[in-house]
């Protein structure tokens, strides 16, 4: 599968929340008279402000996570009566997406939110928008130059692997000798490499655990089932499995059930609703999933609105929004699944 596929865009948490204005204040109350004044610009809040038109160039929804990205952006924009969202038809074709972004630039939108099919290939059009005075929120797959965007918002692929490995390590730390296998994503993608590196680094803290097999899949149900079947055939017994993606995890679970294997625990990745439902039911080997939340798209809309209204972020004293926002890869288990279920995607 080519690297520009939207599946390659795959794959920490909730959207930037709204809050009160962070303005300097004074008071005639003697108790507050000597309190230091807060500095900063007005922060974005839920009250309608200046009208803002946001251009959104997102992915074609050929994967559950990518479809959720589009839905999160649309639903968040609807929350604000003064926000108009100009959307393009999602595409994993680089040339087509460049044309779509150029159309949004020509429409003179106030802010652009772009999840590029290929960050490097779309860098030039990001630069074009910035030079035209249209700030760009770069979502997930990063442009090749920081001059091509005002703010980057995305997940933590290394953190996914690190947290998955730490969770597994804690479950197996008391075993004298434990074996772990890894069902990775598309191997030539940087995100897959980062997830695997984080996982390997976490396991270094548990000398009793050995990674005995690693198999790459393609972020699809079909590939998950086929590659998991191969792993099960090659490894007659192991203690834990980390699967990089919950979509391919559906297939992996099918292969596991068909093989009648249940001697190990499984940790998923991304945060699909189906995975959370299985974790809550607690009737399979799937015991946890590590988030790479599509709520990043809602966060991007929040930040774009703040940019368009020349506001900062609630809870921060800064005059401007940050240059980057990396979302946390929380581990969802049966103990906290109810908290995260609303963020699960189909």
From TrEMBL:
PANTHER family recorded: D-ALLOSE-BINDING PERIPLASMIC PROTEIN-RELATED
Periplasmic binding protein domain location: 54-309
Protein name, as recorded: Substrate-binding domain-containing protein
Pfam family, one: Peripla_BP_4
Native source organism of the sequence: Streptomyces drozdowiczii
Protein localization: Cell envelope
Span list, region Disordered: 27-52
Keyword match Cell division: no
Keywords: Signal
